[in-house]
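During the first year of the project, the team set up a workflow for recording each protein of interest as an amino acid sequence followed immediately by a discrete structure-token representation. This format lets reviewers and collaborators read both layers of information side by side without switching files. As required by the reporting guidelines, we include two representative entries from the current panel. The first entry is reproduced here exactly as it appears in our internal archive.
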Amino acid sequence: MTEDGGPHQLSYEPKLFANATQKKVIPISELYKQLKKLSKELNALEQETVDTQSLDSVTKQLLAPSLLRHKEPGVVAYVVCCVADILRLYAPEAPYSDDEIKAIFNVFIDQLQLLGDVNNQFFPLREYLLTSLATVRTPALVAMLPNSENIISRFFTVLFGVVSPSQPHNIQMQILDILQQLLEEPKSVPQDVIDVILLQFTKKRQQDNPATHQLASDLANATADILQKYIYQYFNDVIVSAAQQRASQRQQEGESHGQRRDRGSGSADSMEDLRSAHYLILELNKSAPGTLLNVVPQLEEELGVDDVEIRVLATGVLGQMFAEKGYTLAKRYESTWKTWKGRRADTSPVVRIQWVEHAIPLYQHQPQLARELNDYVVEKLCDVDDKVRQTACHSLGLLEMTSPVQAAIGDNVVGSLGERCKDRKAPVRSEAIVALATIYSQVYDELEQGVAVAKVKWGGIPSTIFMLRYIDDPDIDSKVESILSGAILNFAKIKDDRSRCQRLLVVFDSLTPKARSGFFSYMRRQQDIIRLTNLFLTLCEKQGASQSADSAGAMDQQLRLVAVKIAACFPEKAKVESALVQLANLHDEEVYKGLRETMDPKNDIKTVRKYQKSSLKRLSTLAPSLLDTTAPLWKCVGLTTINRALVPFLIEHASSRASKQPTSAASRFNAAADALLTYVTNVYPEMLRSSSAELFDVSELRVSAVHATEERLVLMVRFAKAIPKSVPRNADLESQLAAFVRSGSMRQAKYAAYLLTQMEGADVLCAALTGDVVDNLDNRHLEQRSPSFAALSRFALYAPTEFSTYADRVSQLLVQNVLAGSLDDVAQMDDAGNGSVDWVSRADLEDASLAKIYAVKILTNWLVGLERQALTRDNVQLVLGTLRQLVRNGGEIKPGAATRATDCQHLLLTAASCMLKLASVSHFEKILNAADMQSLALVVQNPCFEVRSAFLLDKLLPALVAQRVHVRYIPVIFLVAYEPEAALRDNVKHAVEQRLSQVRPTPGSPSVVEDSFCRLLYILAHHPDWDDSQSVPTLELFAPYIEFYISCVCMAQNVSLLFCYAGELKAYRNRAAADGVSKDIPNDVFTHRLYILSELAQYLLREKSMSSNWPVNVYPGKLALPADIFEPLSDADKAAVPRRPFLDADFVARRAKAPTATRLGTGKRIRSKSGAAAGAQAGAQAGAVALGSPKSGKRKKAAAGKPSAKAKGKARATHSNDMDDDSDDMADDDEAAEDVEMSSVAETSDEGDSD
């Protein structure tokens, strides 16, 4: 206002033109002065106080074309600033016509287009123009103009074009205000504007200029309610148009509704348009989801269209939209969410794959929402299409296992993923194994901390993976070995050996007993490949040094044979074999040395890795094509899982130091460390050499806890057994071990005695201790005499020279006083004569009972320990006679002796085990006869489950698998045909099929199992259950034995051989035994039984062949039966053999009428009162399994050979604990024992203490 309160007027009247026509302006310098002055004064005027009539002259002048189109950019810049101020001062009305306003805004836009040049001298004027337009809301004038679409479109095009990340933020905000005004003021928004806005959401635009994308996002969010209908219309037009185009294209190609293919073949252009449109939807959902109010239902409709590619597209887009964080689309559009979930069951696997790819990531992005999908994910993990299953496994492996993700994934998903590891398709298996391992690697920290929830859900992953060993597939095995060293153990990312050992223990401790067998089987597989690789390298080196052509040719053949064996352990056998042959032809010592060093148990992990890298680098230089194929071999044989560097920490965990702190982490892994150290001592004892000082630390033996010292002694014993005479000698250790022998517990005395025998120069001490122990044997004033017996059993075996001084005295004492029952007679009589008692573990037996057990072991060890030339007939007869009496009399030294029933069980088991031990020594094996084998066979059918199970699984089967005893003992294992526990039968079947059937005396000859068929028939002919007076029931009783043998051994390839073996029996007679068990039965009776069994075996083989469609041809070879049990017939004797059938016709007729299931030997084995078989019908009676205990000629009827539920659950643990002392008596072969346990049904077998 003026001083009198009136409105302010423009005081300056500029002279901008040279004449009245306004076509020519004044000189440029003067023009700048005039415009600057005018702009300054206009800028100073306020809208509320200005006298607009004073502006009329200037208002008209500024619109002169000579000014608005001036060639000087500065002139135009000043002019538009002045015009902007005029519009500000006149607002809300404008002093111009519609055409003039259009011209003005076109000039405005031209100036705004130059905003990108921030260094221009006139940039401040253009910035002023922008600010004026934004604050005064001048663009609202455009909305009132008719046909203003072009101007509005120009605004959007220009302003989005000038935005850049380097611009000041205030400029971008002002541009946003202007654009927002241009959307809010008009009644409708031009389509070009929508196109410009959506253009900013394209991928290219986002990459080229992120600022425009941000501007478009802010604008869309600010005007979402305005843009909704336009965006919907845009997408509707694109989608409908593309769909129609694709439908028209398919119709032109002649594709009818009934012939529609899985993937539509519509126009590529229309599909590209659809993809672009759906991509924009995704970007809008991320940046401005409010604009898609009507678009989401449109996507829901696409889920149900016939076109597969459109369904795929819609499924993927909605899946990504549901995954957007901070915006739960599923809650706003429940119908769409439900329809989308339904696509999991789409008829097209391509759509199901798309669904899986976007459903599983919801665990990551929307954990709460994903909980609804657990059952559906399980469904897809079991989908009929392998690619769907593969995608599901792969997607699960990509998840980042945060706490919310772990909580969202259901236990059923984890279990189903584990099942996919056994999928019939290799790619699915591979993805599942990798996914499980990746998940385990991410959740390991929680498992290490012992988080209960994590252990329940994820702790079983290693067991699932190592159980895959039972499939025995090279592809699976290679994958497991790869992820074991990778994601499971992850040693490459762990820098210190203590932490590596900790991780190994965490993994191993989580394994189930069966999975532990799988783990050790993988370790043995590595050991086998290492052995073959060492042989391969040796042959390579010899080949390089070979001079003659003949030797080189033979070497090449050997190399190829070894290469074939190595290649068989890997998936691509042919490629690996070819690569190994090429590797052999390289003759490069550096490569060979590097490979050999990776397998050296003396190297630590760092050294192994160094040689792996250096040798592979060298190989890549010499033969790059071999690298990918042979690298898995380097990785497989590298000793990193079990390594020398980990041994000290394993000892620490397994030592008594940990046992004194029961709550410590070290104590938690005591048993796991113990099991791993057992493996190390048995397989790689060299790894222990560098840790012998820590292992034999005397302070570990001086703790008060007896159990702790026993466990430490166990570790020492294992080391000493692995490396004989390796116990370091020092006074403190000698003194402590001697103290254990004299006054320790049974286990302390036993182990200490063994360690002293393995100490160089300790012979004198062993002799003195032997004398002390012998004096204690009949010392009735001692509370516990069993420790002395246990220690003496070790001295008898490992210090035979020192023991020999007392041998006669000891043997007489043991046989006459201990085993005959005069020692503590009163204690022994309390339960003598009881018919049937429950099994009592050895740890719970009384001292007198233990003394008897160790008396048997002392006698046996005495014989085994003596040199052959030191043996006498009397010694052998005394010991062997004692063992025979114990086995044949069911654990009693004399028939009918009043021996406690629980003692009989243990004595029978011990005596049978000791007889097997003698059988493993060649000069004793020759003494054992057929009657001894027959006696051992009956132990397998003992009424006590624990006796027969321990003898079979812990003694006989491992000895046969390891080939420690003669193959003539193989038929004994087939007497488990009536075993009520399926696990025992299946363990036998597994051992026969996987190990024993592979053993052949010479290449091409019958296997040892096939060769044992006649021996089995011999055992059956001498079986006490045979009743000659009841032909048909006897045949029905004995047929299942042969059928069980056939089920384990018979195949199309060997049925003719077995048929010939059975028929050949009629050319022989039973050889009379010098020490027969059944002397009262004439030899001709046994021969007659053999002929019956011969025809029975042929009948059953023919029956099996017919059911399996196998031809039974004449066997071309010549067979000879074992001379120790069969005597060939002379020609005259052969002619005297009756031509009539020996097999009872009634049996054949009854069997022909019986159902197939009945013929397969499902009946129970029962003894009648007369000792004859009661027949198959009686066998069906409840609870009537009779596995008789041998008692002289006749055998008692057993109540039930099946253990109680409680005993069954602890059976294997009990066996191992009871037999723990036997591990030092017989040569250990853990590999054989593990192979016996590798039965697919050995679930009841728990790993026990086998020290």
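The second entry, processed by the same pipeline in the following quarter, appears below.
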Amino acid sequence: MMALARSVGLLALLVSVQGLTREQLFDYGIRVGDKILDSGTDSVRELELEQTLFFFKGKFDKVYVNTNGFISLAEPTGESEYLGKMPASFGMIAAFLGDLDTTDGAGYVYFRQDKSPDVLQRVAEHISQAFPSDDEIEPTHAIIVTWENVAPQGERGLTVIIRKIRNTFQLVVANMKSASYAILLYPEENMQFGSTLIDDEDQPVEVGFNEGKVPGWFSWGSTQGTYYRITEDSEESINALAQETNSGRPGVWVYEIGTSPLFTSITPGEVTEVTEVTSVETVVESLVPEPSSSTPDEPQHRYRYVQPQQPQNPQVLIIDEDELNVDVFSYNYETCSSNKHKCSVFADCRDYADGYCCHCKPGYYGNGKDCIAEGKPQRMNGKVSGRIYVGDSPSPVEFSNNDLHSYVVTNDGRAYIAISSIPSSIGPSLQPLPALGEAIGWAFALQQPDYRNGFSIIGGVFTRQAEVVFQPGNERLTIRQEFSGIDEHDHLLISTELDGRIPEVPQGATVQIEPYREIYQYSSSLITSSSRRDYTVNMPDGSVRTHSYLWTQSIKFQSCPHEEVLSAVPASQQLSVDQIFVMYDSGNQLIRFAMSNKIGSIHSGIPEQNPCFTGRHGCDTNAVCRPAQGKDFSCECASGFTGDGRVCYDVDECSESPQICGPFSVCSNQPGSFRCECVEGFTFAGDGRTCTERPVDHCQRGTHDCDAPQRSRCSYTGDSSYICSCLPGFSGDGRACQDIDECQLGRCHSDAICHNTQGSFTCQCRPGFHGDGFSCTPGSDREKTACERHREAAQASSSSGGFFFRPRPAVGQYVPSCDAYGAYEPLQCHASAGQCWCVDSSGLEIPGSRAQPGSRPMCIDHSVAPPLIGPTPKADISPLTPGANLLFSQSGKIDHIPLDGNRMIKDEAKTVLHVPGKVVIAVAFDCVEQMIFWSDITQPSISRATLQGGETSLLISTDLGCPEGIAIDHMSRNMYWTDSILDRIEVSRLDGSQRRVLFDDDLINPRPIIADPAYGYLYWSDWNRDGPKIERSGLDGSDRTVLVQDGLGLPNALTFDPQSRRLCWADAGTRKVECIDPFSRLRRKLTEGIQYPFAIVSYGRNLYYTDWRRDAVVAMDRHDGMEVEEFLPQRRSRTYGIAITYPQCPAGVNYCSRDNGGCSHLCLPRPGGFTCRCPDARDGSCVEQDQNF
């Protein structure tokens, strides 16, 4: 035992009373599935609940999470109506109600729903400890909301942000079958303020439960409900949140907040006396353990010194280490042997006990994943997008994907940034913001002794968010930047987004930025800074104005998780920026910034005089300056260059070492470096360096010799091999497959009719018999159909007079007509009223089909072919036609993914059509002729080709702006499309002839368009940011109406599911998928939090959508909104349109299906009729008329 204590150390179990710590909160963050509330000062997010929440006497199925420290049971009003004015008009659970702020990039609000056993068990423990006399505490659902590092809003808020004064607290709502509880958690060390500024007065925060407005007696009006307040207007009351308790644990408060069916009042926990909390701390006798000779299978002990505390009367126990059950955070247990290729080619990989890390080689600097040569200048490329209001302008200036180029001379810290295509309406006003490029200057700042610039610490992959608050106008601008690392050309890639309002700087004015200093605070994954910047505007009239802005920023990154890597970095470093130059070139629409950057100590002292640290050394721009004693120094050419340091020349590694890249590769020289590329037919092996022959998947490439995909299947077997096999219902060797005529084989009963189909067959008993077609018996005892039961009931009620059935009209008795098979006749008449109407296969009247007495409407035969032979699907799954495929477009091609039921057969995905040099946007499919239709926006056109391949046909190439959506009416043989530049919707025949404009007004950005030919409707959406909407009309353009207008952002994608009769859309602005019944207008949200959808299609149980951010095709269950599958194309680029191919069309016809409805030119159906229309280019033979049925 003594030996064990000597080698392992002394483990002391100290029993003492301690406040709650942040580590003792419920787990939170992205890693446990939390969603993040948008940054702001009054942000709100709706959360639909998976289980009912009981609050006071009410039951609630949704809550609203708010920045200001509460969740509400109804959508909250603006903060000015409740802050300092409680009780509010809406129900509220206030964990820490005040004017809070998360805009500085350091504060976040996380939230989720959780049903995991470990969380529910912990919830039950808190409740049981607070209510020890209660039995059957069995929570089944929890809502966890965490406010992390939130700051108070306002001028005082900016002060505390700089001083790092923030609060972290948590609310857990636990739901059971008939009760709900609230658990409030306040970590003592993380509760650093207790009041916020409201109406310029410092007011204490409030904690409690507000019922909101409730109905008055006899439902006359409403009255203010109960407000159960926990805190008082005193500092002591606020401090008590983290120090006292009603659950036996300091900082933890538990309340019963609702019960059903009876509720009396909010009930607090009963245990106000603090229960002793046991804390485990390890005191190690030796800080550095002796070297171990244990094998890899033996446990490796790691020790951390903990300063022992001195609690009163501590109880000290000596225990064995094996008795401790400690969960240790694990970064990555992989090793360099399989991950070395993830390091830079200029880095070494080093194994650790629980993972690996990359370290740049001598002469290079970075984080190991990205390494660049010391002294070598660095170039950066990127894009800048923005939506900025200038001055008091009511409309923003918007720009997208403007080029950003930057160049940094790293041996003197001088950075140059240029952004192109900046309009003159905003260019002058951006001059005060060299901060747009500050991260570049910080990343490659000139390093003072013992200090390191950004790139040498975190490399080139990080995100940066900055908030700028201008004085005195309080304009705000948010800057978001994504640094994506070094590309194959050794350029650092940057993406920038700007959003907000900035003060106006007049045309012709110049701006001068004063030198400034900024302190950067470093941690393992977050870097923060804040400062005040002063600038001077020299007006065109010669006057001078001085302004300033407050600046806060956060930089997030992922570092190597081993302490020694970051141990040499000071916790605080100061960035000094001077020699700042700004200019807007109105002639070329360029804004330019330049600045000199140094990184060093936060303490003032004698500046370094060595030229290497001042930047005044005269070394070549491709050289590193090496300091010596005093002011002596030497210049050394950077790696990849040669010379005396004063003048350096690029080394051509490809010429000097021809074999440097190895076999089957080509070497390309670059300044200071070189690049290896595998020759055609070869690819890099797992090490990222060796070129090996690339196996060819002929199935995916489409270079196999199997029969058409409707008849055969190509299966990749590896090593460029594949096999062909015929699909069920076909025979042959897979390269040539013929349909099997099952009717010739006598598969059906002798009293049944056999219908052969491609790849299958159907059997149907003859009139007078019933059965499934395989077994038919005389019809006297067969089960009656719905129509026959309906008819029998009507006739029985007529004779008895006891039952009166009257669907409509209201007079007399209606007896339905049934055909020989027992199905409803398409035409139904009411003998007494003399009226007739059309019905569908269920006997329901087709709206608009009822004729006047004495006339009969023309009804469509709605007989449906018998079902395909095969297993009967489950009731909640729509039957899927065999041979269906997903089509989706990328720039220059259209790919397809075979579908097996609801599953994508990913390994059989391949390219159907190559259109080099084109940008294919919309994709559609004609199931009758098996044709693919697509639009190209490079040279605007609409084309088509057969699914089996062959020559493409250019349908429309004139009078087009940007055709972004195509819809096919396969029944009427018409094509519809949207044009987002010409702002109109057009129709034509499927061959592109007989064009006609349906709509050219009240359209801004029409994109998706959907045809419902069976019922005669046309749907489309307009993603106009100032007024997005979803509309509907008849396929002839009649009865145009807005279906959805509220709660939309960018409704890019639209689809109609004929099975459920639901219209669904994916919104890239709200990041939601929603559906609506177009007739009842009932709207339902399926999911939220998706990335950037472009197009969507419905098939079977799933919705499939393309996503720009993920470069993927995503499958989602349309019933519960859960993502079920993802397909990532081999070539990662934006995915655009998506469509479904069918081997045969769904059953059905419309009024234009037969003989073009008798029209001379365009036959355009609508609900209850059709319209004959002429093309815009008319001739004398065209006749227009309307037909109603």
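For the second entry, the following points were noted during internal review. The CA atoms of residues 769 and 777 lie 5 Å apart. The first helix runs from residue 2 to 8. Both points are flagged for discussion at the upcoming steering committee meeting.
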